[in-house]
Amino acid sequence: MFTEKFTTLDITLDKINKTEAVIKISLKEADYQSAVSQKIRDYSKKANIKGFRPGKVPEGMIRKMYGKALLVDEINHMLSHKLTDYLRASDLQFLGEPLPNREKADKINWDAQKDFEFEYSIGFANEFELAIDKKLKIERFTIKIDDQVINETIENLQRQFGEPEIADTVQEKDYVFGEMKSGDGSIDKEIKVDTKELDKGTLKKFRGAKTGDQLTIDPKEFYKNPNQLKYQLGLMDEEFKKLKGKLTYTIKGIQRSKEVPVNQDFFDKTFGPGAVDSLEAFRAKVKDEVSKSYVREEEQYFHYKLRELLLEKAKIELPKEFLKRWLKETNEEMSDEILTKEFDSYARELQWSLIKNKIIKSQNLRLENEEVVNEAKNMIRNQFAASGLLEGFEDQLDAFANNYLQGENGNNYMKVHNQVQQRKVMEYLTREITVKDKEITLEAFRKLD
């Protein structure tokens, strides 16, 4: 514990530890009296009180009837402006918003006091340095599209185009519909399971099971890809890692598809009539499409690992107790249970935001409006192209983009802005650090942390 004081006029900041402080604002009668008197004069000209002509109400009567309310209003106005100006001028990286000391505020005697002191708790991030250079090293994985991946993809397509039927018991290659639950009730979600993707041990439990059966499973050994269940349950990485004990999966339905034969009709259903006319061309087309489909997944994983690397190197300390209190006081729906479950993920996002903003400022990666508009146009262009509707719409893209960016009360604009800025940050980092590319199998990629 340590305490430092920095005084600017009538505002004092007392540091109570490395990431928390108390801000004290002192007001004397001379600071507010003139403004309060002016409010009373203005009010007397507008007040409509029985027995007095409009604008002729004595100031003394206004002071007696409304003086305290006008005093409180003016002081709150002054506090808000002084606090905002002080926070903006400070070199500290404040987080959240100042929380008033309500206990002390409740003891104020507005009828008798002339001088006032107000206290606010505040949190801030510690100063951190982060060298972005070639000494930072990271691997970037790409998926090798081998015959096994191509064969699995073709088999999945055969099942996809096959005629579905209801099955009595589970067999390999079936789809199973059911409800996943945890003992403490924190997880309760219906998910679809492709038995082809199950871990060998879990597949043994599913094989032969019937609708209504309840299976006990280990969430960390459910799928061949350990991350797949995490995504299905909507859990963040830290939440999934903390998941303890077994889960139960209750089977509610079993679906089986008869695989369609690999022939020209199958080729046409997959890529359109006449797009390919031989098995060799079909496999080549599948390989190309699969490669494209994994590019985004590869990029997302690389960005995730890059972010984790920087978070580890930066070692940013946060005012955790202050932030928890602030989240609860400013969000009525924030229960202790939700806070406990989600705070670590919130803290990681906040730390990453601090790193990202530091990079944006140091490298001047700020965006022009034109960049945001062009990104929106590209998004819309890709949507039209995927639907085969692009022809004839190019000259209307400006209008479509503007309408989209103005939607959701401007939230769409910020969403696109943040996407472009995030990409710029990642492009900068990729250029400046040492990136070693490594090709691995799909199975190995699925097992990455």
Describe this protein's structure.
It is a single chain. By secondary structure, the protein is an alpha+beta fold. It has 3 domains: 4-125, Trigger factor ribosome-binding domain (Alpha-Beta Plaits, 2-Layer Sandwich); 163-258, Chitinase A, domain 3; 277-446, no CATH class. Helices cover 51% and strands 19% of the residues. It has helices spanning 29-46, 59-89, 102-106, 147-161, 200-206, 226-233, 237-241, 264-271, 279-314, 320-330, 336-363, 369-386, 397-406, 411-432, 442-446; strands spanning 4-8, 11-15, 20-27, 93-100, 116-125, 137-144, 164-166, 175-182, 188-194, 214-217, 247-257, 434-441. Strands 1-2-3-5-4 form a 5-stranded antiparallel beta sheet, with helices on both faces. Strands 7, 8, 9, 10 and 11 form a 5-stranded antiparallel beta sheet that branches. Strands 6-12 form a two-stranded parallel sheet. Strand 1 (4-8) and strand 2 (11-15) form a beta hairpin. The longest helix is centred in the middle third of the chain and has 36 residues, at 279-314. It starts with a strand and ends with a helix. Mean pLDDT is 89; it is low at 1-8.
